[in-house]
Each structure stands twice: as C-alpha cells, then as structure tokens.
Amino acid sequence: MLANVKEIMFPVRGDERGRLVVQESLSELVPFEIKRTFFIYDTTPGTVRGNHAHHRNRQMLICVSGACTIKCEMPDGTKSAHRLDWPDKGLLVEGMVWHTMEEFSKDAVLLVIASEHYDESDYIRNYSEFRRGCDNASKYT
Ligand code: T46
User: Fold this and answer.
1) Spatial CA neighbour of 129 closest among 100, 104, 95, 96
2) What is the pTM of this model?
3) Residue 137: pLDDT above 90?
4) How crowded is residue 131: how many other Cβ atoms within 10 Å of its Cβ?
C-alpha cells in the first residue's frame, strides 16, 4: 500500500445484538490525536467533492453508510482509487495527498476523523500549487 494513503480494516465487535466498530485516538489504526470529526451526506448525484490537499491535516475516512470512492494523488504523482463500501473499512490519508471524493451512493454517509481543527490556511485548493509544492519538496529530499 502507498505510504501516504492506507486502507484500514477495523476489527468488528459483533454479537447477537449486532455489530460495533471503534476508532480510538492515537491507536495503531488511528495514529493521530483526534481533534475534529465531520460527516458528509445527502450528496447531490454526480458530485465530486474535495479537490484539495492539506499541509498538515491527517484524516481517516469511513463510509459508515452506503459507498463512495476516494481518489488520491501522492506527491510523487502516483494515483490510487479506493472504494469505501463497508463501515469497518477506513482510508488513512496523510497530508500532501491531492484527493477527491466521488461516486457517492444515494445513502452514503462519509465520516471524516481529523488530526487538526478546521483551518482554511491548511488547504491547498489549487492543483498547480500542489504540484509545485511537491516538486520543490522532492528537490530537498
Ligand atoms: C477533506 C474532505 C475529505 C468548516 O467550516 N469546518 C470544517 O471542519 C469543514 C470540514 C468544512 N467547513 C466549511 C468550509 C466550506 O465552506 O464547510 C464548507 C465545505 O467544505 P469543503 O468544500 O472543504 O468540503 P469537502 O467535502 O470538499 O472537503 C471536506 C474537508 O473540508 C476536507 O478537509 O479532506 O472533506
């Protein structure tokens, strides 16, 4: 799996009453302190959300109902697509990953667990700026 993006399967605690999945701050599966959560639902058909990267913010994305696809582009230009279609499956997205969320099913609820409080200055919303930032960083590594 690509280092900047990682698919996670959360253990399911199930019994005759149903199923339960836990996300815990600073755990092996959520390796950051959780400062914020939000969720996206009632998405207009055909919508593509995201289209940005973050400088610092790390996120765990979980489609707790329905399904959607997360498309990612790493700093080295590698691309990947991840179908989130089950509530025990998560996608860990590190900073400096250009990502979109698309192909939402009608019933999709995308839960996002974030390492940082909301800060618009942490967003890179211009694709050329993202690529320039990645290319400059690679010159010094
Ligand atoms: C991300 C993907 C997965 C706030 O005021 N506070 C918040 O915590 C968030 C997340 C958003 N907002 C405001 C900013 C915009 O005016 O809500 C509006 C919609 O946000 P945005 O267009 O950034 O939404 P998405 O779905 O494109 O992206 C969101 C997150 O912003 C982003 O961090 O990685 O989900």
Assistant:
1) 96
2) 0.96
3) no
4) 16
